[in-house]
Design goal:
Number of helices of chain A: 8
Largest sheet of chain A: 7 strands, parallel
Oligomer: homodimer
Radius of gyration of chain A: 17 Å
Shape of chain A: globular
Chain lengths: ~220, ~220
């Protein structure tokens, strides 16, 4: 199939990742836990959206967060200060999370605790994380208004593999040339089935719709839960 | 020295990159061309800063721009519309530029044309591009105000290898919790010699100081030019 050693190695690496990811998803399926993987550039507001949405999503002790970062415990500390359990995964240079990292953290967690949701905040990077299934049921790609409406066209893979597209920092739209209509149109050219949200964790606009979507996704996937 | 095949391969790949990068730098040295490599997240304003700074830096025909992107010709088109020559390098999925990509584009350019500056706009990614020397003399890392002041601590490698740190979109500082003092302090903990700029391509604040820095870097490196 492939004609260079480089591609061969990559395929094997991704196969190994998918094997671990499928194992995680099967375990989460059995426990009726919906897993959500958040992808974006650095500074698009992934942690801030979790802070704004999670405390009012469901009982706090039914949520577990995995925070991926190159360095620092800061994001996990922000989530813990909301009363929600969070594991920090520092990759030490690696530009994305891989399924085996999630598996290691998952095995260190208290797996007897019943959960409704697992949120995985990927390393801030709109490119590489798109190639790695982490066992999630829902993949979310986020772009903040100040980043510009050209991001879907320029970083198509993250959009091609996503279920939902969240435009964050909508409170800053008046100070930018960001066209919500253009961003949505170009994102849907890549992935027509994207569910789109425009929200601001700052003033709360759109956050309830985002929570409703997450709850609905869990109900649809686990109607017996 | 190394005990796994993975590390061995990576070291060889980076050695090969450095060999090509050193060749490019030697050629640019001989021609008194200062090469500048811009690194940032997607949407930090790399292209916008080039649009704001380049037309008034030196005669337009003495500047060449290499635009790195996963997809689209949009950034090169934006630069060309300013009357400045630009090559688009689309990586087709690769999350950073490598020296051989620059070498290919450089060989396609009109190398008889005398130049003062080459600007390389890397793929929008605050992680992977930091590992690849592109033959530049000056490496610039940029963070926009809306991204947050925690970026230096969370993405240290880009700062460790940089000469200058540019905080962009300063016009948006009033709408964010970004602390310029904290961002600079944490960046200088990683790389004490960083030259720092705070600017807005929107209202022009700080752009002249940035141009002056570039001109000074060229004079210092090529006093005979």
């Amino acid at each position: 199939m492939t004609n260079t050693k480089h591609v061969q190695v990559l395929e094997n690496m991704l196969d190994a990742n998918d094997y671990v990811a499928n194992g995680l998803r099967a375990e989460w399926d059995a426990r009726h836990i919906l897993a959500v993987n958040l992808l974006s550039s650095p500074g698009s507001g992934k942690t801030t959206l979790l802070e704004a949405a999670l405390p009012w999503l469901c009982p706090k002790d039914r949520i577990l967060v995995f925070e991926g970062d190159i360095e620092t415990e800061r994001d996990a500390e922000r989530i813990r200060s909301q009363g929600i359990d969070a594991f920090q995964i520092t990759t030490g240079g690696t530009c994305h999370l891989e399924a085996h990292m999630i598996e290691q953290a998952w095995k260190l967690s208290d797996r007897q605790q019943p959960l409704d949701f697992i949120f995985i905040e990927n390393v801030g990077n709109l490119v590489c994380p798109a190639s790695f299934d982490l066992g999630e049921h829902v993949r979310v790609v986020m772009v903040s208004a100040p980043e510009g409406d050209d991001k879907p066209a320029k970083y198509p893979k993250a959009f091609r593999t996503a279920d939902a597209f969240v435009i964050t920092k909508s409170d800053m739209l008046p100070y930018t040339s960001f066209s919500v209509e253009r961003a949505i149109r170009e994102a849907k050219q890549i992935q027509p089935n994207l569910k789109v949200f425009v929200l601001s964790a700052q003033n709360g606009e759109g956050v309830q719709e985002w929570r409703d979507y997450l709850l609905e996704q869990r109900r649809l996937r686990f109607p017996e839960a």
